[in-house]
Amino acid sequence: IRIAPCWLLLADIEGSTELSRSLPADQLPVITGKWFSACKQVIESNGGSINKYLGDGFFAYWVDLDGMLPRLVVALGELKRLQAAEQPRFRVVLHRGDVSMGGAASMGEESLSGPEVNFVFRMEKLAGGLKLSNLMSEASGARLGSRLHGEPAGRHPLSGFEGEFAFLLF
Question: Which alpha helices (DSSP H) does 91-163 contain, by range?
Fold first, then answer.
């Protein structure tokens, strides 16, 4: 097990339950399959890895190595273009923190754990509750600096974490 600084990205289809009810049964897997495939291409072609598929979303990461920031910014731009197409509508949250990696891998996936992983999942819940399509943590915004412009999204509590945290729209 090692500790590594990582970019953590969580993407989730907005209103997936309503979407599944509104489409014929044979269309939903086509739409979600195309979406997953397009997102996977964006993530992997820019140096990231999808860690887990979550039914109506996925959890991806990049180890924060030298030279990774430009690739991450490109990936975020490409994901925003996919969001604009709304096929389907989805939200993206981004956080950077130190993550425990290793241990027992599951189904070929790197095992990621620690409070920062929990933080990004809580961020996604917050973004959904606020009806935001994009949200990044203050830690992400600080590390990205001028590479990606972020607009203040206020300070909010996260379940399981003490205090309030500043977030940015991107």
Answer: 115-129, 138-144
